[in-house]
Structure formats: C-alpha cells, structure tokens
Write a structure and sequence with these properties.
The protein has 25 helices and 32 strands. With 803 residues, the chain is an alpha+beta fold. Among the domains are: 64 residues, Arc Repressor Mutant, subunit A, CATH 1.10.10; 172 residues, Rossmann fold; 101 residues, Translation factors (Elongation Factor Tu (Ef-tu), domain 3), CATH 2.40.30; 106 residues, Rossmann fold, CATH 3.40.50; 99 residues, Translation factors (Elongation Factor Tu (Ef-tu), domain 3, Beta Barrel). It has a six-stranded mixed β-sheet, sandwiched between helices. It has a six-stranded antiparallel beta barrel with strand order 13-14-19-17-16-20. It has a six-stranded antiparallel beta barrel with strand order 25-26-31-28-27-32. The longest helix has 61 residues.
C-alpha cells in the first residue's frame, strides 16, 4: 500500500511538473507575441507622427504671413476650427500690407480649404495633444513669416514625444535589457542553454515515441511454464523488464525482475502486452520417448546384445575371453570382474555380437540388473562342479524380471568332478527347464579353458537372435544406455554407452541423466576412434558435463539450449527428491531424535574409479549397518582423491576409502598434514571385511550375560540402621558374592543391583548352591518384599562381528 501511494504521488508530481512546463512555454509565447504587437504599434505611431510633421510643414510654407495679433492664437485650442476661421476673417482687413486681388481671392476662399487641409493632421493623437501643436492653427490662418519657423520648431518635438512613449510599453512587457533595447524589432530575448537542452530532449523523446507508435507491434507466442522469473518472461516477450514490473505494480504486486511469478500471473502479463500464451507444465520440459515408435519401413536388422551372467568365479570372463580370443581376466583385480565390460565380437561367418560381461559378486546386484535390462539374450554361466549358487539364483530372477530369453552355458566341463546333469536338475527348482529335459531353454556344455562347445554356443545365440527378429531404426536421433561411467584424469568424464536406436555421431548434442554435453570423441571396445556408432554398438563417449549414473539414458537433442533446459529441470527434480521428507509429527521427531542419540555412526568418504563401483560399495556398506551402528557416507564420487575430499574427511574424523584410485599430489600433502586415515582396495570383498572390522572396533566389545543362579525371597529383616537383608532359598544354580543381580516382582524388574554381602547363618561365604538358604544384602536398594525373585548373572565381553 505504501509503495502504491508513493508511486501515485510521484506520478502526480510528474504530471504537475509537465503542466507547469507547458504553461511556462505558453506564457513565453504570449509574451513574445505581445512584444511584437507593441513594437509594431510603436512603429506605426512613429510613421504617422512623421507624416503629420511633414504635412504641417507643407501647410506652414503654403499659408500667407499672419498679422502680429495672431501671436495670441497659439494658446487657442486646435479643436475649435470655426472660431479660428472667423478670427482669420476679422484680422484680414487690419493687415499692414495692401492685399492684391489674388490675395483677396485667397482671403475669401481661405475658410473653405482650411478644414480640408487640417483634417488629416488631427488623427495622430500623440502629436496633437501637446500645447505646442496649437501653432498649427496659426499656421493655417496664414501667420507672419516669423511665426512659421517658430511653429515648425514647436511641432518638431512631436516625434520625440512618441519616443518617450515607447519605453513605457517596454516597461509594461517585462524587464528591459540592453539586448531588448538594441533588438526591439527582433522579438523575444535569446533562450538559455538549459532551456535549449530541455527543448531538444523533449523533441528527441517525441521523435522516438512517434517512431514506436508508427512501428507495428509484433505479436509473439510465449511459452510459460508453471513458474517463471519476471526477467525471463520479459525476454520471451521481447519486452523491457521494467515495463513488466510497472504492470505488476499496477496490479498491486510488488516484485522485482528476479522474483518468480506463477503461471496465472504470467498469463495476465502476456495478455496485457498483446501476446499469445502457451501454457506448459514442468514435466513437459523433460524428454519422453516412451510413445516414440519407429515406423516398420524404417527398421533394419541389428546385432544382438548378449549379457553373460552368473555366480562369481564360475568362468564368465574366461568364457568371454575364449569367444573374443583375448585375456581380460588377468587384468581384473583378484581375478573377479568388478565393472561391466562391453565388447563386440565378429564370428567366423561374419556376424556381429555385442557382449556385456557383468560382475558376479554379491555387491554388484545393480550392475547385473542393468545388464539384464539392456540386453536381448542372457547367457547364464553355471560351473559344472559348483552348481547353482546364490548369485546364479539372483541372475535367474533378474532375467525373468527383464523378460529376455536365456541360454544356459554349463562351464568347466573339463574338470573331473563336473556334473552337468546335476546342474540341469537343480535348475528345475527355479523353473528353468532345458531342452534336454523337454523344455524350451537352450543349454550348452562348454569349457572356456579347452574351447569345447564355443562354436555351438555362438550358433545358438545367432539362432535365438534370428528367431527374435531384432531390428532398429538407424536413421534417427540416437538413444543409448549408460553401461558404465568414470572420471578420467586426462579425458574428463567418460561414459561407456550402448546405442539402442539411431546413430550416435561426433558433434551430437545430448542429455544423459542430469548432465548434458556434446560428443567430442568416441572410441570402440578396442580403443579406436570412430565417427559414428549404430544400433547395438558399445562406445566410449567423451564430452560430458559431468559423470552420469550407470543406467541413465543418453538422448540426442536439437540444440544446446534444449539440452541445458532438460538437464536443469532434472537437476531440480533430483534435488527435490533428495531433500524431500515425510510429514513429521512431534512423536516421530522425538522418536527419531532418541534413536539417533543411541546409534553410533561410522563416517566414511568413498572414491572409486567408475560409477558402478561407487554404487556397489555404497550398497555393500549400507548392508553392514544395524540398529546400534550405522555407516554414514559423507561423500562418494568418481575419480582420484582430491584435496577437498581430504578436507572433508579430516574435519569429520572419517577414513577415505579409495577403490582403484589414488590421491593427487596436493591431496597427498594434505593427508600428511592432517594425518587422515587412508584405505586402498582393488577387491570389493576385502573392502567390506576391513570396514566391518573397523566398525566393530568403534562399536566396542559385546557384553554377554550368563545367568548362574536364581533364588526366592522368603523373609526380609533389617540389617544395620538403613539397609535390609533378604533371606533367600536358592532354587537354581549358585549365588555368588559380588555378582550382578536383578530383583523381580511379578516378572517385572524392580531394580538392577549387585550382591554386596552373602551369609549362611552367621558366617560370610562366597557362594551358596541350590537347595540351601542364605541371607544377602543388595547394594543400592532396600525395596525388597517376601515373594520377590532374585536372578544372579555374570557379565562377559566378546569381540563383535558385523556383516
């Protein structure tokens, strides 16, 4: 309200100022016109006075010389012309000189021409009002020669009388200055420099405002989301942000250009400025390809994607090496796969296969699930000597959930204790019926070591792929799935992706998860650079803005603006999801606070080489938590251990777990200064075992209670001034002095105490066995009644085990 009043006062002040300026200009114009009019009147008066003077002189020259008596006539009034004519007739006979006949004629005719000649002389009032002007009558009567010059001299000051009147008019019109006095005929005085500047500024504003009115306003279609800032809306409308703020002020809303307004308010603004609005929700910003189905005529055959799954150490990577003719397993730490590897194999007949090697360790459940979801065929590897194992069952469940066909590869058939038939029978427990047992699931006995059954396995894979008729559209914007992601020291964020459809080309702009980027380079599974990748081809993509999550979908978009818009929306959604909490009540708040006070936290910072390993380590460590001690992961990320990681860990007293990564130079210096604990691993089960030991050490030894005896209170009697003694009957075990005891009444614990004194009759004893009576004094309690029960126990400590 105050701002609106201030705004209205300011507008009123500006209006009054403009009105005052307008009136001032009008007054100046009127003054100029008035001065011009007065100057013109003065000029005309001077001209008429000059003409009157000339006419008077001509009349004086033409008239006869008057008699001496005519000297008194200048005092007569000029307005009484008939009297002047009569006096002239009376004075004529008394003239000293004898008149000629011609003179008589003039005397007789003098009264007639005199009125005609003096009629124009009476008009100029300034010259006629002076007393000296009366001499003109004497002149008309034909006074003497001496009077003619005198009359001329007296009539001469008439123009000077007109000059004296002129300053009066100038004084009435305003201040008389030198410039006005010298340039009276030029009109108004010169304008000041400030007035000229104001006039030019006003003309400029009028000029530009006239242009804007002449230019036709462009109507735009404005896309408005559910929430938008005033400045962003102004940019989309191609209007000034200040104009939008002013319009909002007029609506009663006090906002700035950086504040956010809702969709309804934005619609009012768009409509007021003459544009069209297109409402969109925030979810419309995101990319939805679920309903994007390619036409049948655009589909072409593509290679099958095969995932090798199974239990750890059952020979999955060795089987892949045998198929590829390489030796990948030697490069894996501990001989177990800890990343998803994507490879392309070319068979002897020229067909191509894309193979994904998934980890078999229990910690890599999410990786196996992703491997099952992005593949067309799953090869379930089961060792002929071990049979069905926990991760084998998990792989079966993932395959069923993904709905993809399965081929069972019974490996290690070259071993002496191999029993493929037992494996087939055990698979029946999980509803997997192979062809040899009249089922529809293909099975092959193979040996990665000797190469047995490999050709048959490839043949069955191609047969299954042909039956599935795998097709995709290569001539469209690419879509791919992130198999693995990491932060490379020289390359930056790198993602291994599997192209689902379309063709991924160098230079494409894409969105993957919450990150966006441009394809800077692509490498195939052999490390060679490629310019494009078609369907079912795994490639390593460089040019990401950050490290995406494994399993994210990479989608090519039309522009960088669109990519930034989608990635920013996804980041906001991820932040909202991460910070979202359930509605809290007082009970839940207090219970959570009490639970937190009783829980020991084990803080840790995790850095790994790839995103999948980070995810697996997080899940494995969270599984170590229980109700009394929990793992608190302060930070987890991909890449080398940095200085900021060391700072965070040292401030919280947490160890840093490095999985296949090491600290950089600056981080090593800070580690030495802060003495931060470092833990380096390359095998995940060693990491979990060591963390479990450290958690057990923080938790402390476990206290174990062992009940050694029970007794019943028969009688209570005083012992000393304050204490009470209880007479007991030992009903079970033995009662020992100094042990811990619990006193219960109706199966409810009354107090937890220790046995301070133990007597049998009057003698102090160390223990009393079953069936005997004794007397005890309990420490720190006198609340004892007959019928209570006493439970005596020992407390021992043992090392805790976690996991």
């Amino acid at each position: 309200m105050q701002a609106r009043l201030l705004r209205e006062a300011e507008e009123a002040r500006l209006t009054a100022l403009e009105e005052a300026n307008r009136r001032e200009q009008e007054e100046k114009l009127r003054a100029i016109e008035e001065e011009k009019r007065r100057a013109e009147e003065n000029r005309r008066a001077e001209e008429e006075a000059a003409k009157a003077k000339e006419a008077e002189q001509e009349v004086a020259k033409a008239a006869p010389e008057p008699q001496p008596e005519a000297k008194a006539e200048p005092a007569a009034e000029t307005a009484a012309e008939p009297e002047q004519a009569k006096e002239a007739e009376q004075d004529a006979p008394e003239a000293a000189a004898a008149p000629t006949p011609a003179g008589k004629t003039r005397e007789a005719g003098a009264p007639a021409p005199a009125p005609r000649r003096f009629t124009p002389v009476k008009r100029p009032e300034p010259a006629a009002r002076k007393p000296e002007g009366g001499a003109s009558g004497g002149g008309a009567a034909g006074g003497g020669a001496s009077k003619g010059p005198a009359g001329a001299k007296k009539g001469a000051p008439a123009p000077r009388g007109g000059d004296r009147k002129a300053p009066d008019h100038r004084r009435q019109s305003g201040k008389l200055t030198v410039s006005r006095a010298l340039n009276e005929d030029e009109g108004a005085r010169a304008r000041s420099l400030a007035a000229l500047k104001r006039a030019r500024e006003k003309e400029r504003r009028a000029h530009f405002s006239g242009q804007s009115q002449q230019r036709e306003k462009q109507v735009r279609d404005v896309i408005v989301p559910e929430a938008i800032t005033v400045q962003e809306l102004a940019n989309r409308m191609a209007e000034k942000g200040a104009d939008l703020v002013k319009a909002l002020f007029n609506m009663g809303m006090m906002v700035t250009v950086n504040q956010t307004i809702d969709q309804d308010t934005a619609e009012l603004l768009v409509t007021e400025f003459g544009h069209n609005i297109e409402r969109v929700s925030e979810s419309d910003v995101d990319i939805d390809t679920t309903g994007d189905v390619d036409a049948d005529e655009t589909l072409k055959a593509r290679p099958p994607v095969v995932a090798i799954m199974g239990h750890v150490d059952h020979g999955k990577t060795s089987l892949l090496d045998a198929l590829r003719g390489t030796d990948v397993v030697r490069g894996e730490a501990g001989g177990i796969t800890q990343h998803i590897g994507a490879y392309q194999i070319k068979t002897k007949n020229g067909a191509q296969l894309t193979v994904l090697d998934t980890p078999g360790h229990a910690a890599f459940t999410q990786m196996r699930m992703r491997g099952a979801n992005v593949t067309d065929i799953v090869i379930l590897v089961v060792a002929a000597d071990d049979g069905i194992m926990p991760q084998t069952i998990e792989a079966i469940n993932h395959t069923k959930a993904a709905g993809v066909p399965m081929i069972v590869a019974i490996n290690k058939c070259d071993k002496e204790d191999a029993n493929p038939q037992k494996v087939r029978e055990r698979l029946l427990e999980h509803e997997i019926i192979v062809e040899q047992m009249s089922g529809d699931v293909q099975d092959v006995e193979v040996s990665a070591k000797t190469g047995k059954g490999l050709d048959e396995l490839i043949e069955k894979i191609l047969l299954q792929a042909e039956f599935m008729e795998l097709k995709s559209n290569p001539d469209r914007a690419a879509e791919a799935t992130v198999i693995e992601a990491k932060l490379d020291k020289g390359k930056g964020p790198v993602a291994t992706v599997l192209v689902n459809r379309g063709t991924l080309k160098r230079g494409d702009i894409f969105v993957v998860g919450t990150e966006s980027g441009r394809v800077r380079a692509m490498n195939d599974d052999k490390g060679r650079q490629v310019k494009e990748a078609g369907p079912s081809m795994p490639v390593e993509v460089l040019g990401l803005g950050g490290v995406p999550m494994a399993g994210d979908v990479l989608t090519v978009v039309e522009s960088e603006q669109r990519a930034r818009e989608v990635s920013s929306y996804r980041q906001e959604q991820a932040t909202a999801k991460r910070t979202a909490t359930a509605p809290a009540s007082l009970d839940t708040m207090f219970s959570a606070l009490a639970a937190k006070q009783n829980v020991i936290e084990y803080p840790v910072v995790i850095k790994a080489d790839v995103q999948g390993s980070v995810e697996a380590i997080n899940n494995a460590l969270h599984k170590l938590s229980n109700d009394e001690i929990k793992v608190r992961i302060l930070h987890s990320g991909v890449g080398a251990i940095t200085e900021s990681d060391v700072t965070l860990a040292s401030a919280s007293g947490a160890p840093i777990v490095g999985f296949n990564v090491r600290p950089n130079a600056k981080a090593r210096e800070q580690i030495e200064k802060t003495k931060t604990e470092m833990m380096y691993y390359d095998v995940i089960y060693e990491l979990t075992e060591e963390v479990a030991k450290q958690m057990a050490g923080i938790w402390g030894p476990e206290k174990v209670e062992t009940v050694v005896g029970r007794a019943e209170v028969k009688q209570v009697f005083p012992a000393g001034k304050k204490d009470k003694a209880a007479g007991l009957l030992v009903v079970e075990g033995v009662i020992r002095k100094g042990l811990h005891a619990r006193l219960t009444r109706n199966d409810v614990i009354v107090s937890a105490t220790t046995i301070a004194s133990l007597r049998r009759f009057k003698d102090d004893v160390d223990e009393v066995r079953t069936g005997l009576e004794c007397g005890v004094v309990l420490a720190d309690t006198n609340d004892i009644k007959p019928g209570d029960h006493l439970e005596v126990f020992e407390v021992s400590e043992r090392e805790r085990t976690i996991g």
